[in-house]
Amino acid sequence: NAGVTQTPKFQVLKTGQSMTLQCAQDMNHNSMYWYRQDPGMGLRLIYYSASEGTTDKGEVPNGYNVSRLNKREFSLRLESAAPSQTSVYFCASSDGQHQPQHFGDGTRLSIL
Amino acid sequence: QKEVEQNSGPLSVPEGAIASLNCTYSDRGSQSFFWYRQYSGKSPELIMFIYSNGDKEDGRFTAQLNKASQYVSLLIRDSQPSDSATYLCAVNLNSGNTPLVFGKGTRLSVIA
């Protein structure tokens, strides 16, 4: 009964390093999402994938890339990490855009 | 501009009282409305969703939707200290295949 699984749970990077955050869901959902959450800013959408084979930019895509590897997996890549990308990252999935989203436990990322 | 607005709080209520959380949205054509609870350091958890005007009850929680006035509310009856959390309102705007828009959340504190 895993739902949405994110790895890693914690990570510390140095400025300029690259990193891929992994997300997998076992609910056979069509849509997947990546958010970041910073104090006082709420959840901000980075990228989403409405269905397998498609990806779209959200509110704050700069500095990130994504890959929808298959229906289950959606990864987020930081090519050259910056301190401004220190945040908590959440992956979510839903059966469609009008359906509830289900969230993973998050990845706490610190960039020094 | 497409927006979902919530009072950031904190909203403080005594144990046993009714907590009333409000959310307004800008797009009159919005169709789907969701309430999430987020404990400190945890991921958002879906607690209610509502699609039609009126009230929807689930245990101690009631969601109220008024599309004419463009607001959705969450009532928590018999509030408990364990209800202390941030409550996020999310709206699916009726402008095509687009993801949920989240409010920044209202922090609720239930005082024993």
Jot down its keywords.
heterodimer; A: 112 residues; mainly beta; seven-stranded mixed sheet; four-stranded antiparallel sheet; 0% helix; globular; B: 112 residues; six-stranded mixed sheet; five-stranded antiparallel sheet; 11 strands
Question: What can you see in these coordinates?
Answer:
The complex is a heterodimer of chains A (about 110) and B (about 110). Chain A is mostly beta strands. Chain A is built from no helices and 11 strands. In chain A, strands 2, 4, 5, 6, 9, 10 and 11 form a 7-stranded mixed beta sheet that branches. Chain A has a 4-stranded antiparallel beta sheet with strand order 1-3-8-7, with no helix packed on it. In chain A, strand 9 and strand 10 form a beta hairpin. Chain B is an all-beta fold and about 110 residues long. Helix content of chain B is about 0%, strand content about 55%. Chain B is built from no helices and 11 strands. Chain B has strands at about 5, 10-15, 20-25, 30-40, 45-50, 55-60, 60-65, 70-75, 85-90, 100, 105-110. In chain B, the strands form 2 sheets. In chain B, strands 2, 4, 5, 9, 10 and 11 form a 6-stranded mixed beta sheet that branches. A 5-stranded antiparallel beta sheet of chain B has the order 1-3-8-7-6, with no helix packed on it. In chain B, strand 4 (about 30-40) and strand 5 form a beta hairpin. The model of chain B has no long low-confidence stretch (mean pLDDT about 95).
